[in-house]
Amino acid sequence: MAGNDANELSGKSSSGEPLSLAALGNALSKAEEFKNRLLTADADRERQTHVHDLESDYYNMENNAYLTKEEREAIIARKEELKQMRARQKRALIVDFDLDKRTVNETKDQHEYAASDPVIQSIISKSHQRQQQESGVLMSRPNFDSLFPSFTPKYDERYGHRSKNVQGLSDDERLEIDDMFLIPSEEMLYAEVERKGYAIPVQQPLASLLAVGIRRHIPWPEDVDLRGPLFIAATARAATQAEIRDEVQKCRDLAFQNVYGEADGGYGGLDREYPLSYPSGAIVGRAMLMECLSLAEYVERYPQGECADSQEGFVLIFKVFDPLLVPIPHLPPQSSSLSSSSQSHELYTINKQLRTAIKHILDPYSFS
């Protein structure tokens, strides 16, 4: 003890070396570095714990007690679908030949699969919403006896009785009234297509360009009777960089020529921002199908249109475009192979859970 006091009085450290500002600064720097290492270790531990919690939630979310049997089965089916998609993406091998640079590169389409899958989160959110609604109904009841109402609803025949409302009309007039309710309006047809959740399989890069409205016309091999909003499903085949570059250049040329005669150059104007990625095997957006023209009709109406040189027999005309900022993994039917010959050219309906998830993203304020 006396030795330490003597060192302090003489300006020396405990090791006997003379004290200096450089020595103090060096010691302070080492202490600061050690503190930072401790903080980094704590942060990594918290991050690792957070990842483990997410993985635990992901693998056990179907055991939620508030899920219905249908919702639980939908979550299990969706997780199996994501598992199959990951396996197919790992087996996919796309080679991109750059003739200008004389290089050969492997093109990989990356998907991020996590516990925050929009379809699964939509099911969980719907379950929580139903739970809150049921709790609200119970809380609003004046007493528990009202849980077992004893009254029997009765129908008042004074209202809504058709035979009394049409008395005095002839048979022809009654038929005209019935026809008014039987003729479907355009809005009703659109609503029915949206309710069933129709999707159209489109190869990249056309799928992403259609979702943002840069491409508005898509060649199609057969006539289509449907009209209304369609989900755009990018097929499993990944686009090469050469295909993306050629298609983007084609769209820029059409915008420069202003072939549609629009003042602002249309959706594909020169100042438009093009997609940064072209994911395969995913829902990338929604577009409104307005018309299906034969190739002869299309060339007559759009002699320099984007599909004027098409080899297909028909052209689909789209308007009103809603792209998804984050694509949702999904494989269209009959498109599991990477060859273009397996491409399905049929509109199809997606399952209810996927349809609900996409609708909540595109229409967040919708109550349906």
TrEMBL record:
Protein name from the UniProt record: Activating signal cointegrator 1 (inferred by orthology to a human protein)
Organism of derivation:
Anisakis simplex
Pfam families (UniProt xref): TRIP4_3rd
Q: What are the record's GO terms for cellular component?
A: nucleus
InterPro entries attached here? TRIP4-like, TRIP4_3rd_dom
Q: What is the lineage of its organism?
A: Eukaryota, Metazoa, Ecdysozoa, Nematoda, Chromadorea
Q: Where is the Activating signal cointegrator 1 third domain?
A: 55-105
One GO-annotated biological process of the protein: positive regulation of DNA-templated transcription
**Which residue spans adopt a coiled-coil conformation according to this UniProt entry?**
none
